Amino acid sequence: MREGNRIKSYVKDAVKEYDNYNMLMLVLPDKLKALYHEIKTMTLVPGREILTQIVLEGTLRKTKGQAVFTKLLLQMVAKRGNILWVPSYE
């Protein structure tokens, strides 16, 4: 679990040092997916909202990689409060 401790340390440093940023995207190795909730909790800083997008490495390796990246981008845009487009049926 040494790798997990190292990742948690990186997240703590990012939360502490990069106070001008409010979004963190992290690619986790599949074997460390149990850290998901802990990392989400670490980014809940009172008075400062840090939006997190965590994706598993295996998800990025899927054959439809471009579709995965598009969905990740849309999720990040929506988390920023932007409204995703809606088709007009007029």
Task: Kindly describe this structure.
The protein is of the alpha+beta class. The protein has one domain. Helices cover 47% and strands 18% of the residues. It contains four helices and four strands; from the N terminus they run H-E-H-E-E-E-H-H. The strands form two sheets. Strands 1-4 form a two-stranded parallel ribbon. The longest helix has 16 residues. The termini are far apart.
Q: How are the strands ordered across the major sheet?
A: 1-4
How many whole angstroms does the radius of gyration measure?
15 Å
Low-confidence stretches: none
Order of helices and strands: HEHEEEHH
Helix/strand-derived category reads alpha+beta
Annotation field: number of helices:
4
- Bin the strand percentage: 15-25%
Number of strands: 4
Secondary structure layout:
Elements: H1 2-17, E1 23-28, H2 36-42, E2 44-45, E3 48-49, E4 51-56, H3 57-60, H4 65-79
